[in-house]
Amino acid sequence: MEGYIHSVQSLSTVDGPGVRCVVFMSGCPLRCVYCHNPDTWELKKDKAYTPFELFEKVKRFREYFGEKGGVTVSGGEPLMQGRFVSEFFTLCRENGIGTCLDTAGSIINDDVKELLKHTDICLLDIKFADEESYKKFTGGSFYQTMCFLELLKENSVPVITRHVIVPGINNNEAYIKEIKKITESFPNIIGSDLLPFRKLCASKYESMKIAFPLAGTPEEDDGEIKRLYEILKS
Ligand code: SF4
Asked: Which bin fits 217, alpha (ψ -120 to 50), beta or left (φ > 0)?
């Protein structure tokens, strides 16, 4: 079998614990208004690898991973190619490389259920905390994300939740309080990251000749992120 890979970032310190090699899978069923990677949306546009070929590529960076680091598979939405990621993670773990899944939890099927058995930690992007906003700003379902979170709990996968904070959309106390409720209800959630909305991706939209829905929205202020963290931790 083969998986379609958009790109591989050799080393990162912001995509899970420690130093990690990040694999960006192609394909995503969502269309988030703030998406930083619109170039990953289409599934079969990119280079195809077998799980073994991908493993051979990432294992070259192993000496940098240390005890905490390893591989992070991101996207796009890696769950679109759940079976491929599952086989890739199996190879990584068999060879002592830790596995991290960076996902919006937007797909549940047998391949995804199998994948969670080979996942050491999950970065779960919980984009909005109500069905209406989730649908409006991503095209997806909040309920679906919560079902995926339940599945992570059943599989005892530790989770760090992630939330892109956008001025005028979700940079408010009500949203943070909903997030707090969720994090307190799931014992497998070990942390939460609030990520300020940025517009570095605007040039990607330009080169793809598609409109960036938030072109007129200001970037999120770091002071506001600090304030929201305080509410989250209170
Ligand atoms: S889930 Fe991620 S890759 Fe997909 S549209 Fe949303 S931000 Fe973009």
From this structure: beta
